[in-house]
Task: inverse folding
């Protein structure tokens, strides 16, 4: 397979890239890791006039934790940068748990965190993680930068809230109120397959009380599912067996899975319930050990 | 040669805009004029006649087209040739020296790490990326490193053994 013809530019700055996007008025696509875009070009699901390769822009590869505790991930930070990151291992358990489950190790050398979120695949891992974390995306356009809350960023399957002349330059994970706890579990038939079901959990804990609970689901709906309303049954409470069971049940009810070759709707809902319970129980047990 | 994979010619018709790129392939600088839509795998196979890089699934699943890009493994069917401009690419042709097989190649021979051989170049480059960073991997680490590469013959057992064999040889050579 080979893509249809397109022009190619590799700008050296974000401003230059934005100007090109603006010039092509919606007929241009941004190329970062390309691990979703290039297959789509080959299948001709995407046929842009112009491809704007941002890989040669300096200064977008970073990920860091700021003194206030917020984590910032640049547009060219690759999945494997996060997988092997001490900063992430120390500070962000949801991202740390998901990083080695994205696609396969070879795709992870190239694909980017921010690009994967922009791709907004209903089965994508990072959009679910970022919704659970109540993250934000920094978009840069001709008039400067603006922040978009993750819960508004994914507007549908393969749709995001960026204007045609904006580039997502950074993802921000806000500082936790208390201690960041969390996890990510994914059921896949084999490495690199799309998720049958996956669950992202992020808790901010003050002592053994939950100050904030974010849960999001991938693979069990027409788009990434924000189950934060369902997770709110945990807020202000402790991780007792009873509360965990109630949360798992509420989140499973928020899933909207369809029966397909990966499993029946009931099966996928059951997986969601099991995963929520497993992640929360894991957090409860490790907190007990630490205490 | 005519095949499905030959449609984007290494030398495009004169009315199509091309870009001149220089890529270091197995240590040698190669300069080509390519259409932006030419995939790196096709540049290697059709443009440079380095047919050791295989195109298997063409959908980023199988890893048969794995090459090293600045030392890290990538699936060359999922990168544009223009993106390799100014970068280093290593293919299976770069593994052996004039007189000696690379320890990974020797390992695949010793431990019968292949049947049909189609996935082997990708397997060996994924293994090289691992062993260049860690020449004393556990079996789990080898399985992790190869989890993006599919083999439909072997059941993987002998591939894992081959890589562990190579690791031992590389450790012995570095001492």
Result:
């Amino acid at each position: 397979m080979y893509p249809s013809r397109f022009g190619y530019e590799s700008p050296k700055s974000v401003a230059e890239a934005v100007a090109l996007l603006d010039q092509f008025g919606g007929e241009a696509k941004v190329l970062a890791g390309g691990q979703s875009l290039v297959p789509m070009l080959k299948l001709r699901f995407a046929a842009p006039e112009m491809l704007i390769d941002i890989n040669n822009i300096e200064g977008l590869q970073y990920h860091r934790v700021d003194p206030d505790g917020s984590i910032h991930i640049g547009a060219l930070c690759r999945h494997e940068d996060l997988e092997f990151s001490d900063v992430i291992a120390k500070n962000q358990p949801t991202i740390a748990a998901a990083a080695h489950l994205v696609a396969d190790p070879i795709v992870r050398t190239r694909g980017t965190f921010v690009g994967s979120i922009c791709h907004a695949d209903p089965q994508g891992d990072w959009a679910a993680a970022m919704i659970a974390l109540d993250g934000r995306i920094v978009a840069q356009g001709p008039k400067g930068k603006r922040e978009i809350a993750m819960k508004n960023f994914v507007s549908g399957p393969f749709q995001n809230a960026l204007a045609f002349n904006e580039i997502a330059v950074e993802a921000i994970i806000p500082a936790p109120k208390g201690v960041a706890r969390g996890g990510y579990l994914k059921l896949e038939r084999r490495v690199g397959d799309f998720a049958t079901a996956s669950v992202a959990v992020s808790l901010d804990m003050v002592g053994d009380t939950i100050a904030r609970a974010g849960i999001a689901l991938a693979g069990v709906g027409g788009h990434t599912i924000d189950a934060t309303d369902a997770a709110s049954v945990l807020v202000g409470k402790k991780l007792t067996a009873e509360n965990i069971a109630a949360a798992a049940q509420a989140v499973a009810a928020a899933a909207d899975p369809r029966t397909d070759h990966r499993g029946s709707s009931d099966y996928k809902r059951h997986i969601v319930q099991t995963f929520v319970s497993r992640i929360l129980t894991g957090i409860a047990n490790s907190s007990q050990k630490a205490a | 040669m005519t095949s499905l994979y030959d449609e984007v010619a290494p030398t495009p018709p004169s009315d199509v805009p091309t870009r001149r790129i220089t890529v270091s392939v197995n240590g040698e600088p190669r300069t080509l004029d390519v259409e932006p839509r030419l995939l790196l795998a096709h540049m290697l196979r059709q443009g440079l006649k380095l047919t050791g890089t295989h195109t298997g699934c063409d959908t980023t699943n199988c890893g048969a087209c794995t090459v090293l890009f600045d030392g890290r493994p990538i699936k060359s069917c999922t990168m544009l040739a223009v993106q390799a401009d100014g970068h280093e690419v290593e293919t299976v042709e770069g593994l052996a020296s004039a007189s000696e097989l690379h320890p990974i190649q020797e390992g695949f021979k010793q431990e019968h790490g292949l049947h049909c051989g189609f996935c082997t170049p990708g397997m060996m480059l994924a293994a090289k990326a691992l062993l260049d960073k860690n020449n004393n991997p556990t079996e789990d680490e080898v399985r992790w490193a190869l989890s993006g590469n599919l083999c439909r013959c072997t059941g993987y057992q002998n591939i894992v053994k081959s890589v562990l064999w190579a690791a031992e040889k590389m450790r012995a050579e570095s001492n």
Observations:
- Residues 67 and 91 of chain B are 5 Å apart (CA to CA).
